Prior knowledge:
Blueprint: E1 4-5, E2 8-11, E3 16-20, E4 59-67, E5 92-94, E6 103-106, E7 122-126, H1 128-131, E8 137-148, E9 158-170
Amino acid sequence: MSAAYYDIITDEGSTFRLKLKFTDINKNSVNLLTPPASVVEGYEDQFPKDSNGNLLPIKAYVRMQVRDSVDGDLIVVNENSLATQGDDETLWGQSNLEYPHIKIDLKDGKNTSTNKQDQPNIIITINADVMGKIPYGNFLYDIELIFSQDIIDHPNAIVYRIMQGRFVVTPNITR
């Protein structure tokens, strides 16, 4: 299945927030806090099982990167044009890390008032301070959803690119 293509147009110096709903085949939000075993349907044989043959719990992770081109560098988040490409100075994020540049929160997808599965289960935020340190221009991004039993980079992880496109940052005039 191909990733959804969506161009994000955001503003330099403004808070960016994107709410996504990852659903099952019946259009119900998937609980990404404790994903059901059905999310790895067809791949069960590559995941370890307990002594009774039951699939061990699956974890969900989401990651996002913003780059200057397909094979290019991650976008530097720093007012200093001499900044290096260290992980702590570039525009990327991962849901299980407390990373300051792209914050990714996973939810159960339930509306607390009705307890129905109809709410976003992925919330991506870049605060205004970080957005103020990103140069305006046209960049590329993608968002991946990973299912694994222990760590995001496990060799048996199942990775879905769920969204991709241009990440356009318009210039800030008011300072």
